[in-house]
Amino acid sequence: MATILRPALVLFGSLTVVCGVLYPAAVTGIGRAVFARQVDGSLIEAGGKTVGSSLIGQPFSAPRYFWSRPSATTPMADNAAGSGASNLGPTNPALLDAVKDRVAALRRADPANRAPIPVDLVTASASGVDPEISLAAADYQVARVAAARKVPEAQVRALVARHRQEPVLGFLGEPRVNVLALNLALDGKAQ
Fold first, then answer.
1. Based on the domain organization, do 132 and 75 belong to the same domain?
2. pTM for the full model?
3. What is the H or E stretch that residue 14 is in?
């Protein structure tokens, strides 16, 4: 029994040190050296205070702000601790009802806007905490935001253009806008 137990305990101890201490320490050290901002949570500050992360969406509902994608997290919207999708399929009546309600809310918020509503304004992302919207979703909201702030639409469009993020490596994903960064810029509190 000792001939079996001793090597097993040595292997267990060795793997614990390598996989549980050395590897995490090395990965954390490399991350801090190469990707310090990301390792610290990609935090966004305004007025000397941390107001959020560029990686986690925040709910906005006032007409003067761009609105994020709907969130499927519980017990509250954009809860990073409860990240996850709703798991409702495209033909599920609950999802269809939720989309209809979101479409109606967008139409009520901007009755003059008869443009097609971009899908990312009425459906949650897989994580439920997506911090970005498509350029189409931003464009859809420009008139409402400009009217609520009493500024020309061209000024708001220019701000959206300045906050446009290109696809990763030029081809992964779509052009997009970070909603928190854009709303902070609207308030004049950009980082």
1. yes
2. 0.80
3. helix 2-17
Number of domains, the chain:
2
Kind and range of the H or E run holding 166: none
| Structure token digits, residue 156 | 């708001």
Q: Residue 189 and residue 155: Cα distance in Å, rounded?
A: 16
Alpha-carbon span 93 to 87, nearest angstrom: 13
- Cβ atoms of 135 and 177 within 8 Å: the answer is yes
Cα 62 to its chain centre, rounded Å, is: 18
Q: What angle do CA 116, 121, 124 make, to 5 degrees?
A: 140
Dihedral angle, C-alpha 55, 65, 59, 182, nearest 10 °: 0
Domain shared by 25 and 54, yes or no: no
Q: What is the pLDDT of residues 124-150, one digit of tens each?
A: 887 888 899 999 999 999 999 999 999
* CA contacts within 13 A on the Cβ side of 75: 0
User: Half-sphere exposure of 55 toward its Cβ, with a 13 Å CA cutoff?
Assistant: 9
Give the domain range for residue 14: 1-40
Same domain for 30 and 65, yes or no, is no
